[in-house]
Amino acid sequence: MKAIVYRSYGGPEVLEVAEVPDPKVGPDSVLVSVKAAAVNPVDWKLREGYLDGIMDVFFPVVPGWDVAGQVVAVGTSVPEFAVGDEVIGYVRQDVVHHGTFAEKVAAPVRTLARKPRNASWAQAAGLPLAGLTAYQALVHGLKVGDGDTVLIHAAAGGVGSLAVQIARAQGARVIGTASERNHDYLRSLGAEPVAYGEGLADRVRAIGTVTAALDLVGGDALAATAELGVDPRRISSIIDHSVADNGGVYVFVRPDAADLSALVDLVEAGKVTVDVAEVFPLERAADAHRLNAEGHTRGKIAVEVG
């Protein structure tokens, strides 16, 4: 089958189109014919070797953890799915080797849910990792609900835009930081926007009292949140490990079929929409990686495969 691979750590230039063997389908997995995959910051961080200390990597690597596609074969211990089912998945496995930037991927059922009926393939592919990150931080970690005012740093990005919608679906008021060019976009999602930069805490304070905060950008975000007097136990970050030192919640997203199904329900109910910034053909995976690494994209970046 055709796939994108890299044979050593490096920049986007190490990505190449190659022919690789079809993946084997284990007892608890299904074989998915990939329609689309999404790019996430972890993809280029893995490619550049930043996660070498915590994950075993076997070259050549097929990158990608997000997928949307159709089941074409099932393992011997899989009652959950059948051939022809349309699925999405956050297909992170224990080692880095077989990813989703390929014509086919073998996906453990614990990583999958049915595809939202009202989402395109590109939108569906953009939901799993970013959506699960936001959902697990807000729902499980911070237990956001009615009466909360949630501050979301970098609210217009791939994770942030989904976090805004999930928090609103939980009944919370949302204040989101973003550059001014994205303020109307945040308002369309139901958030009250504030600009980055000096004086952020004062601008947020003028809007309301924050009861929980989600950091998606790092840097000065946690310092600004501390200025607001938010309970440290109700601060979560996907960037800064130090948040846990004060009793907060550090999130490294994990595959969870139940959480992913809950996200699908929110999409089908019209409460969450995946904004796709750009779609590339598989052969231009390097360009997709470059764009994602720039860090200024609103919404998700997807790659079409089938």
Automatic annotation (TrEMBL):
Its EC number is 1.-.-.-. PROSITE patterns: QOR_ZETA_CRYSTAL. Keywords: Oxidoreductase. Transmembrane segments: none annotated. Pfam families: ADH_N, ADH_zinc_N_2. InterPro entries: ADH-like_N (IPR013154), Chloroplast_QOR (IPR052733), ER (IPR020843), GroES-like_sf (IPR011032), NAD(P)-bd_dom_sf (IPR036291), Quin_OxRdtase/zeta-crystal_CS (IPR002364). Gene3D superfamilies: Medium-chain alcohol dehydrogenases, catalytic domain (3.90.180.10), NAD(P)-binding Rossmann-like Domain (3.40.50.720). One of its GO terms (molecular function) is oxidoreductase activity. It is an enzyme of class 1 (oxidoreductase). SMART domains: PKS_ER. The keyword RNA-binding does not apply. CDD domains: MDR_like_2 (cd05289). The keyword Oxidoreductase applies. Residues 10-303 form the Enoyl reductase (ER) domain. SUPFAM superfamilies: GroES-like, NAD(P)-binding Rossmann-fold domains. PANTHER family: ZINC-TYPE ALCOHOL DEHYDROGENASE-LIKE PROTEIN C16A3.02C. This is NADP-dependent oxidoreductase.
